Every structure is written in structure tokens, then in C-alpha cells.
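Posted in: Protein Modeling Q&A

I'm a second-year student putting together a small comparison for a lab meeting, and my supervisor asked me to include a predicted structure for Anaphase-promoting complex subunit 2 TPR repeats domain-containing protein. I've never done this before, so apologies if this is the wrong subforum. The sequence is pasted below exactly as I got it from our records. If anyone can share the C-alpha cell output, I'd also love a short note on what stands out.
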Amino acid sequence: MEESTSQPCNLGVLETLDGNSIQQIIESYNGFCTATQSLHDGAGDLSAGPEEFVSHVHSLCKLGLQPLLRDHFLRSLEESFEKISVSRFWHYFDAYSKFAVLEKNKTPICDNEVQIVLCKALEEISLEKKYQEKCLYMLVHALQSCKENLLDGEYNSDSERKYLFAKYQFMVSSVLMASLPPHFPEILHWYFKGRLEELSAIMDGELEDNNESQDKDDMDLDEKGKFRAGEMDVDECYNHGKYSEKNKLVKHIGKIVRDLRSLGFTSMTENAYASAIFSLLKAKVHNLAGDDYRSSVLESIKGWIQVVPLQFLNALLAYLGDSISYDSSSAGIKSPLASRPSSGYHGVDTPSEGLIRWQLRLEYFAYETLQDLRIAKLFEIIVDYPESSPAIEDLKQCLEYTGQHSKLVESFISALKYRLLTAGASTNDILHQYVSTIKALRTIDPTGVFLKQLGNQ
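Accepted answer (user: helix_wrangler)
Welcome! Here is the predicted structure, written out as C-alpha cells:
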């Protein structure tokens, strides 16, 4: 820490003071404490004795008691913040203290109500924090004017400001985390889950609209002309409404994330919306995969990743100011992701490095989830071979991406033992399954390593 922000109180000056001077210091310090309390109790009104406050700061600062002023002011902010703002903030969520039970019982209070409560609680505590920051700025300016007078204007208040606001931010985060109720992370997860499901519904609607638009473009030109003559204005208004709805939702989520970050919940917030995204992606993979093995689903899953979570994350990162282009460098060091092509991002010209990292995480999770689903049903898939070839191809791509080939071998060996090599299995079924297994595994692994491992069992 710089000298101007870490020097101790100059208590040696007290030896040169007489009784009247000491009494003056006591009165100034008491006046400073009273003025500080008046500021903190101002309920948004900073006109509560600013001139008197500055006067006391100047008097004490000239005697080298600046650290004493700072410590008292920060401690007073902490006590006020903890006693009033924090307790009221957590009180909003008391009704969800048994959140896991409410979720398990599917109590119908966990979506719009959670959103309203979270927004209101964050709005109140953020306003209180902004007011306290304004109070802190008053102290910074008072110290600055005093130092400038003492040093003939040669004083840089930037270090003082950074020091005080860093201490204040640490205090805010510490007080909140020390009193954090165990159900709050679940509340954040549920909030982001609900908002992402809402966004997904909007995006799915856009995809359906695009498909319908494509169908219209395939109509006869005369019919298309007639259709557009009567419907164009309606379609344009509808699409604009969809875009506005999506944009408004993303901005709302972005404000919630920004407010949570400001309170020191950065990591918890990222974990909450990340878990919500992965939960939504898992449900989407399960829904698309189903038990139909005669069509490929991998490209549909990857397309959905581009359209829903990556679009949301791109907009969120941009709103928060975290959208840094992947081709930018820091301290002359080029990221390994900089060589990744920027094509293939729905609605994004140049993806940020953060967005590319998210895409890699989401795609790996999708590959692994689909892979596990297909491995669990591999016996049934091979029974339907060659009609189930698309599912086999999907599984091949998943294994190439994840490298988890041992899962397939272990699971399929277990399935063969319990479902095929039993007393009730007919010879024809065994032979048919044997031939289909060879063909399917040759597709997945042309080298024959899987077959060799199966043969050794």
C-alpha cells in the first residue's frame, strides 16, 4: 500500500500540545463522530452538515490524525450497513429458508415470486450502498482539500480514493458473506433457471417463426406476393416485439448480475447461472435424444447451444463489459484460443475469448451427456442396427470429442452379460446381436480395439 494510505497516526505531536489544544482535539473528534453519524443517518440526504464535517476533518488532519478518521468512518459505515441494510436484505429471503423442501414439493411460489423478491431486495441494498459510497466520497474530498492546502496543491488523491473504496468493498462483501443464509445460492439458481427457461421459450419461438418464414419463401411467387401484401406489417411488428422482449429480459438479468457482483457475490452468481445453463442444456439433450435412434441429434443440440445459451452469454458479457475480443492480447501474451476460427457463432461477428471458453464448456458437456445416454442404451441401439446408424454416428463423434472410450467398453460388457448371455436368450438372437455388435463397433472404432477388448472378456 502506498505511503499516503498506510502511515500511522502521528501521536508524537500530542507531546507539543497544551491543555487547550488537547481539549480542542477532543471537541473536533467528537464533532467529527457526530457529523459522521448524521451523514450515515441522512437516509439519502447528503446535506446533513457537510461544512461542519469538512471543518472537523481539516482540524484533525492537520494534526496527523488522518488514519484515525478513516478507521472511524469505515467502522461507522460497517456498523450501519450491517445493522440496517444487511439484516433487512436477508429478511426478504426468510420465507425460503426451507427452499429444498419447497422445490421438492413443487410449491407454486418459486418463479415469479422469487424474481420479485430478489429484485426488490437487491434494489434496496444497492441504493443504500450507493448512498454510503457518496458519503465515502465526501471523506475523500475533505481529506483531499486538506492535503492540498498543506502540500500547496501537490497531492494525488487517487491512491487515497482507491484505498478507501477497496476497504469499503471488502467490508461489504465480508459482512454479507459472514451472514449468508445457506439457502441463498439455491434462490439464485432458481432465479436464473426460470429466466433462462423464459429466454429459451422466446428463442424457440423465433426458430419456429424462421421455419415458417422459410416455408412461406417456398410458396408460389403469386401466392407469396398476396400473402406479404396483407401480412408483412404484422410479421415485422411481431418480430420486433420478440426482439424487444428478448433484449429486455437479457438487460434485466444483466442488472441482477451486476448488482450481485457489486455486493461481492461474483463467484456465487457465476456458479448460479452456470448451473442453470447446464441444467437447461441437459434437459434439452435428453429431450432431443429420446428413444428414437434413427435420426442424428448432435447437430440439433449444437445449433441450440449457439442460438440460446451462447447468445444469452454474449449479450450478458457485453452488458457487463466483459466482452473482450479473442484476438486482443494482454501484456503481449497471445491466448491459445486466438487461433480458433470466429465463424459459426449465431448473431456474433467476433466472439470474445470468454464466449469461446463457454462454447467449449457447453459443447463438451453436451457431447458427454449425449454419449452417456447412448452408451446406456447401446444394447437397444445395436438391436436396431443398421436402422440406428445415426445414433451410432453420434456416439462415435461424442467419444472422439470426450475420449471416454473406456465407459463404452465397461458398460456394454455388463449389458451383454446380463441381457444376452443368459439361459433365456435364443441362439438366433445371440448371433444377430453378435453380428450387429461387430458392425456397430467397427463404425465407432475402425481400428478394432473395442472388439478386441470385448473378445478378451
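A couple of things worth pointing out for your meeting: Residues 232 and 238 are 10 Å apart (CA to CA). Residues 3-91+126-181 form one domain.
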